[in-house]
Design a protein that fits this description.
7 helices; 3-stranded antiparallel β-sheet; mainly alpha; 7% strand
């Protein structure tokens, strides 16, 4: 094979690889997220917590009571999912619910003293996983990764065909 033929093959392979990667960006982002979440879940099992429960406890760490709707927004889950999550944490004695003095139909959630202790322990484990992942990258790689992820957030809402039909071959 000549050098020109080798270079042409490399260019073609690179283009094909790039085309496949572009179409699977969301998949790769999700796989990376799941790898981190799986490690956190493994460690949190020792505290009898799930990752979503850990997020809920973390959202309450500031000492303020919050509604399930507020907690759901912060944890990026539905209100129904958060209500189930809070019920499980309440059963474990980690949170308590009470009616809002300002709004008769709003139920506020806050940490119990046991919840504060468990939230701190869970935060230490979660932070250790995050730190280990970050430590696998150089400072330059971390900056670049964050810049690229922020760029995805900027361009994704405006990306793709307006009607969406082209994505399905219509």
């Amino acid at each position: 094979m000549t050098d020109d033929a080798t270079n042409e093959t490399s260019r073609e392979t690179g283009a094909d690889a790039d085309a496949g990667a572009v179409g699977e960006l969301g998949f790769h982002l999700k796989v990376a997220e799941q790898a981190i979440m799986a490690r956190k879940a493994e460690l949190l099992r020792g505290l009898d917590l799930t990752v979503p429960q850990c997020r809920t406890l973390a959202a309450l760490m500031g000492g303020l009571s919050k509604s399930c709707t507020q907690l759901a927004r912060e944890a990026l889950v539905t209100s129904q999912t958060m209500t189930t999550n809070v019920s499980k944490l309440e059963t474990k004695g980690l949170v308590e619910r009470r009616m809002s003095p300002d709004h008769g139909r709003v139920v506020l959630v806050s940490l119990t003293s046991s919840g504060v202790e468990r939230a701190r322990a869970a935060h230490r484990l979660s932070a250790a996983v995050e730190r280990d992942v970050w430590d696998a990258f150089s400072a330059g790689d971390r900056s670049l990764l964050l810049a690229m992820l922020n760029r995805v957030v900027e361009v994704a809402p405006a990306a793709g065909p307006e009607a969406g039909t082209e994505a399905f071959g219509a």
